[in-house]
């Protein structure tokens, strides 16, 4: 932190001069000007002090963590645990993984949460940011359908069938062996880690087609919103972290080309929509950011991964 700066008021502002003292009549306007100068100098001093305090934390003095809604439950629990040690950590989910990466690059936050690997496009978009990703575990993205669809005969889908669903070419579940029920697709908004994993599975390195012009297609944001839409819409399908449907009997994850999102298949990479989970910093983490990341990597922190349905680093051999 830079040394504090002491401001010395000029003689005219302090009522002193280098010559003899003169008794001058009181002028309210001059007094107001002196008061305004003092207030302005005080504001500059406060701004400099705040800038020093904000170097590693937000304006509130808390470490700001933001990004992926998949990583957020683990980060929130870790922040709560560290609160007992006097650490102030705020966790938010603005814009998903892409939003967190952008906020980190602009200096708005100290740690970004991401449910996708850092892409070359991310680095080229922010050339002045020294991204340092730390993997904390792994997850699986599932193609989630309602129980009515699954029990009606749709327990497995091929990549070609999923493309047909999300491109609006398959509009009724009976076309893939399911019930006579209209398909309603909820896709994730661009920049979400979940969306990028799905696009990679379906299209590889090719650019995905634009969304279909259909009344049965909608774009959603975070995982909780996606789950709520699935549960409230008959015939719905959406990409969603499989951990978010645990305990929700009305939702099912179909197998992909016959491969289920089991821990073994996720750890081995056999399941085609496995993904790593990250915490990212600009440069090597220091201070509260270092403490936070070290906690998530510790035995207590990794137990949080298991609690929320993710795989630990040990389970994936890291």
Automatic annotation (TrEMBL):
<feature type="domain" description="PBP">
    <location>
        <begin position="57"/>
        <end position="299"/>
    </location>
</feature>
<dbReference type="InterPro" id="IPR050811">
    <property type="entry name" value="Phosphate_ABC_transporter"/>
</dbReference>
<keyword id="KW-0732">Signal</keyword>
<feature type="region of interest" description="Disordered">
    <location>
        <begin position="10"/>
        <end position="34"/>
    </location>
</feature>
<feature type="compositionally biased region" description="Basic residues">
    <location>
        <begin position="18"/>
        <end position="34"/>
    </location>
</feature>
<protein>
    <submittedName>
        <fullName>Phosphate ABC transporter substrate-binding protein (PhoT family)</fullName>
    </submittedName>
</protein>
<dbReference type="Pfam" id="PF12849">
    <property type="entry name" value="PBP_like_2"/>
</dbReference>
<dbReference type="InterPro" id="IPR024370">
    <property type="entry name" value="PBP_domain"/>
</dbReference>
């Amino acid at each position: 932190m830079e040394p504090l700066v002491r401001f010395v008021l000029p003689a005219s502002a302090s009522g002193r001069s280098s010559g003899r003292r003169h008794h001058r009549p009181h002028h309210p306007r001059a007094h107001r000007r002196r008061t305004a100068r003092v207030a302005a100098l005080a504001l500059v001093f406060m701004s400099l002090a705040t800038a020093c305090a904000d170097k590693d934390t937000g304006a509130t003095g808390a470490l700001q963590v933001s990004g992926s809604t998949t990583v957020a439950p683990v980060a929130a629990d870790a922040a709560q645990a560290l609160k007992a040690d006097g650490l102030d950590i705020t966790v938010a989910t603005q814009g998903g993984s892409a939003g967190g990466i952008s906020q980190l690059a602009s200096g708005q936050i100290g740690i970004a949460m991401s449910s996708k690997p850092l892409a070359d496009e991310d680095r080229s978009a922010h050339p002045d940011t020294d991204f340092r990703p730390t993997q904390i575990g792994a997850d699986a993205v599932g193609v989630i359908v309602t129980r009515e669809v699954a029990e009606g005969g749709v327990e497995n889908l091929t990549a070609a069938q999923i493309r047909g669903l999300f491109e609006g070419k398959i509009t009724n579940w009976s076309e893939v062996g399911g019930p006579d029920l209209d398909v309603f697709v909820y896709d994730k908004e661009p920049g979400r880690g979940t969306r990028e994993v799905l696009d990679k599975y379906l299209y590889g390195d090719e650019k995905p087609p634009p969304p279909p012009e259909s009344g049965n297609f909608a774009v959603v944001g975070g995982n909780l919103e996606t789950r709520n839409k699935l549960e409230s819409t008959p015939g719905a399908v959406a990409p969603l972290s499989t951990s978010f449907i645990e305990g929700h009997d009305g939702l099912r994850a179909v197998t992909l080309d016959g491969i289920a999102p089991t821990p073994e298949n996720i750890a081995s990479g056999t399941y085609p929509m496995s993904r790593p989970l990250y915490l990212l910093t600009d440069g090597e983490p220091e201070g509260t950011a270092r403490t936070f990341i070290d906690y998530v990597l510790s035995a207590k922190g990794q137990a949080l991964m298991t609690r929320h349905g993710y795989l630990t680093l040990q389970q994936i051999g890291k």
